[in-house]
Specification:
By secondary structure, this protein is of the alpha/beta class. Helices cover 28% and strands 22% of the residues. The strands form 6 sheets. Strands 1, 4, 5, 6, 7, 8, 9, 10 and 11 form a 9-stranded mixed sheet that branches. Strands 12, 13, 14, 15, 16, 17, 24, 25 and 28 form a 9-stranded mixed sheet that branches. The radius of gyration is 24 Å and the shape is globular. The termini are far apart. 50% of the residues are buried. Residues 228, 250, 279 line the site of manganese (II) ion.
Length: 596
Amino acid sequence: MLTNNKNVLAWVDEMVALTKPDKVVWIDGSDEQLSALREEAISTGELIRLNQEKLPGCVYHRTNPNDVARVEDRTFICSKKKEDAGPTNNWCDPEEMKAKLMPMYDGVMKGRTMYVIPYSMGPIGSPFAKVGVEVTDSIYVVLNMDIMTRMGKQAFENLGETSNDFVRGLHSKAQIDPENRYICHFPEENTIMSINSGYGGNVLLGKKCFALRIASYQGKNEGWMAEHMLILGVEKPNGEVKYVCAAFPSACGKTNLAMLIPPEVYTKQGYKVWCVGDDIAWLRIGPDGRLWAINPENGFFGVAPGTNEKSNPNALATVQKNTIFTNVALNNDDMTVWWEGLDKNPPENATEWTGNKVNGKEYSAQGGKLAHPNSRFTAPAVNCPCLSKEFNNPNGVPISAIVFGGRRAKTAPLVYQSFSWQHGTFVGSTMASETTAAAIGAVGVVRRDPMAMLPFCGYNMGDYFAHWLEMGKKLGDKAPKIFHVNWFRTDDKGHFIWPGFGDNMRVLDWIINRCEGTADAVETPIGYEPKPEDINISGLESEGVTVDVVKDLLSVDKELWKEETKGIHEFYAKFGDRLPKELNEELAALEARLAK
Ligand code: OXD
Ligand code: MN
């Protein structure tokens, strides 16, 4: 036992009595303990050791093919009242859900070991940090939590003997039965229960479950915010660093933006970009009245496919050591890993993510991919060549700008700035992406994903919007400026017009200049836009980007926007009287501007 906290001890006792493991192991986080667990998992085949010369400290894991992604339809917010979960969450009465789950957990760890994982989200001792305890029957979970959180006995340091302020997480792989898979949150009880999955997003309970769903609820009650946002710092030639948070729906390139390498026209002048986080931000108002952010995580759980020397060299460098790869392909010749989009040379002698050996050129996995499209790397933040030196700063970093983004072929321009915090909240609440041909289903369907939090908000999103407005009132004129970007505009042939990746720095540059009051803007019905010539396109001639192209990227089609407002009305209607009136006022104001 690593703590005298009576609430932790009582809860662990209760979990042991319920799941009846053969053995209980408290995870102190020591190297000896973790390497013994790694060896044990390798000996049972749960993990495969990769080439230790080429990929030192790296291991490989496959999940069950029925268990490769988050399961939103089996994710529940179990608040006492249904209205408190809101129209965008699956809800179940807490007692009813427990009545369903308890028999499944009863004796589920017989013949297994229970690992008790203490962890801190946020640097230990930071005023932002929160403690969690996850009990699990998976070594894979222990080793991933070690990378993704500050795990081990020091996490208990600030809890004392009597505090009850820790998040309880119960996980069991059980039988990995998709029919009985549940990811349940009890925000009013600081509790998460996950069963029948071994996939990261469902089982690394510190991440989406705690740091977003439970934390968003805590943030509303305690006056702070938990957001699905990357955090980056742009260092200017004079050494000053400006910090930006950005929210994009899952798989829209947050990790790439967080680790971007600016184009030469910027690096030559001395610009640098530093990564503070790639997925989650916890934001608080600091003693100076500004908004400050930490990344509560300690590593990256990134999507592997598409990561390469061009799209994200920093991520590629990050995963060269002490990394866990999940559901990528295995090169049997040298025991290294491969995924679609890494390079153009899939290994001949490969094992697919499903575990099948490649037979000739035919891949047996559905979709014909060697690596699963949602295959992942779990890599320590310290490996990242562009990790911000403020990464462990307990006070976080001050935020100048908040950026929202989606994947829109036509509607949204390359970038625009909201008129105010309230208007920015409106912009975030109406965020949307169009489905692409890469996913099953109709192409070009607009899916609303407010603040990229649709699957991650642990309470009624109407109340969540109200909390955003409230935070804006508290911040007053110290509030960060709010922007919207769209890297995904397409031409008539469906090709992306904007080169994206490192060149997104050119848009960040305008955003920062706006925050500093050094760039002009033009007022449009939807917000402030750059003058086309204020987007630095030097060096983009070879990509065919001219001032006229930028003009086109910034164009606002009023007819499309009128359509857009109809979609927003429909979406807002779901929230009934929980939708703050300010957002309806913003919608009416937008309509009035479009009608002019
Ligand atoms: C996500 C993730 O699904 O970060 O958003 O894994
Ligand atoms: Mn995410």
